[in-house]
Amino acid sequence: MADIAFLLLIFFLVTTDIATDSGLNRKLPPWEEDPQDTEVVIKEKNIFTINVNSADRIMVTQKGESDPIDLDNLRKEAVKFLDNGGGKGADACKYCKGARDPRSSDNFDKAVISLSNNRLTKYKTYIAVQNEIIAAYNEIRNREFIREYPGEGINYVQANDEYLDPATPPNRRENLKTKLEAIRILVPQKFSEAETK
Fold first, then answer.
1. Which membrane topology term applies here (predicted)?
2. What end-to-end distance do the CA atoms of the chain give, in Å?
3. Total-model pTM
4. At the N or C end, where does the chain have fewer CB atoms within 10 A?
């Protein structure tokens, strides 16, 4: 009996698939051994602040005004902010298709989305807000990938999925890697999470 139980235990240990959560995909800035005393100055117009309170209500602050917003409209507002192109001279954005409002973001590189939430915010709401922000970045990246590489016949998200697919041939993967990195440089994902309140 003990031998059979032992064999069953080994069988279940060997054949069981242990599911691992992938978590949230975030790339942290590189560690700097000798931090310099340079202070990064970000203009207030280049910051799109999202606050989620304990009742899971979303408040967006931009152009010095705070307004409540539904989760369904968050992506549209984030895209409008990122794609504004209100910069002049060196800060001008030649690929932005927005309203070019000088009171809103200058270009893709200067625009920062900041998220803060309350300690009592539901996890489901927190993840849903993050998904909408990432979707806003992907919407612009899709457009720019199609504009930059029309011969591919796919958008940024599809190219990224193909790049991550283990069945993709190595030469195709290298080709996609170069194109994906170019789009990530053109439309950097500058997403900041403030400390929970």
1. Single-pass membrane protein; Single-pass type II membrane protein
2. 57
3. 0.79
4. N
Q: Are 125 and 52 a contacting pair, CB within 8 Å?
A: yes
Query: One-letter amino acid identity for 48?
Result: F
Looking at residue 59, its amino acid is M
Can you say whether the dihedral through the CA atoms of 82, 86, 91, 93 is positive or negative? positive
pLDDT per residue as tens digits for the range 99-157: 888 888 889 888 999 999 999 999 899 999 999 999 999 999 999 999 999 999 999 99
- The domains of the chain are located at 41-193
Task: Please list the alpha-helical segments (H only) found in the chain.
Answer: 2-15, 71-82, 123-148, 156-164, 170-186
Torsion angle of the four alpha carbons 80, 83, 86, 91, in this order, in degrees rounded to the nearest 10: 150
Matching residue, tokens 């307004």: 67
The confidence score (pLDDT) of residue 41 equals 74
Pairing between strand 65-69 and 58-62?
Answer: antiparallel
Position 85 pLDDT exceeds 80: yes
Copy the structure tokens of residue 97.
């298709």
- Classify 53 as helix, strand or coil: coil
